[in-house]
Amino acid sequence: MVVNTSGVSPSARDPLDAIREALEPVRAPRFLDLNLPRTGWGWAGVVAPLLIIVVFPHPLVVYIAGALMAYCCPTGIELAIAKVRESVGSCATVTYEQGPNGELTEPSKGTHSEGWFVVPPQIDAWHVERPYDPDPSGLLAEHPVNVGTPVAAMFTLRSLLRVAQSAVLAFFAWWVFSTTGSTDWLYICLAGGQLLLVSRWLKVRKWRALSDLPTSTVRSAAVGKVEVFGQLRPRTTWPLPVAVDNDPRKLGHGLGAWTWRYGHLFEWEEWVEERDEEGNVTGGRWDNRSAYTFIRGAEGSWPTLLHDGTGGIALNANLLDHPPRVNDWRSADHSLWSTRGRPSGKVRNTRAYHSWDLNGWAMGEPLFASCYAVPRSNDELQEESVDSSIACANIELTREGSALGHAVTVHRGTELLAMQEMESSIGAMLPSSILVCVSLFTFLTNGVWF
Fold it and tell me: Which of 222, 252, 309, 406 has the highest local Cβ count within 10 Å?
């Protein structure tokens, strides 16, 4: 059973054709994408900052307002995904009614950035007794080999706006130094630019790993760097239920990797004073605050593989870290405040809870991974009674490998969703590079550092 979390009914047309059509404009390299906002809120996010700039034409205001304007201008890939959502429906929560022998399961929850666009194979089509064999239906419909891979334009309206805002701030810093000798703004540009440059470089490194490495089918996966997409399935028997904190009333079902924790959760409202520029109290507001005290937890995994319809490939447990939330439970207990003391200041509505939460990768989840494939040990193959004539059964996916600079990415969804924020290297890094380069050039040419 498939539940569309957005409430949008998918189109009656073939979803695979709809995805291909939506991706057609962004499959080929492009120099420039000039996409204006497509919604009323998007236009408001452009017009309002422009008005603010007119009223307060300070370079710092221009920089902040420009960031908001850039955010409201979509990239070509974002527009393609929006068109997919209009044609197919938003990411769906796929519920598997039961395991192969009637076991309970957890749903594959769809969110804005994770989940399925096309209904995946149900459990009765998994061949649990021969998990590495191909499915009768063949390659998953949503596999990048079927739908294609998006390519980021070299420049977008968003990146050009970011270039402009950085250029304005960098020119202002240079002008202040030239006229007053003050280096304050140059240091602000240098420090801020360096932080942004490192942040963008980490993202570019991830995006380049995704765009440069073609997505392989499991059947043709080879040892070394590999990019794959498929569905999580058990390698052996169905996973045993996970009892959170050994409580049979708090169970997680069909989990390939999981973590749970128990702690004390505290919530309250705190009065925060508001002051004017001279420090005088002008009013205040009630803010929600919370604190958490960790008490205990545990983690574990079950033999799991990734299956894309052409075959299955084993997953090392280290690949399934940072699992998504499965469930949580609370039990109110006001006496817990005695374990930490009440917050100081003016507070109200104090609450305390025993809190349990369970995170896990459920069987049936979509998984896109850019990682490494390594040979499995003979002992493990023999213990699992693997048919070694199936090539993909002799290797496993892991985070650990020797390729220099390869950024490992694991995403609970398709390649398209993993790449929806992607920008070109120059478009992503040029704005922060301007801040750093102008600051350094000014310092070096004037011999001033401190």
Answer: 309
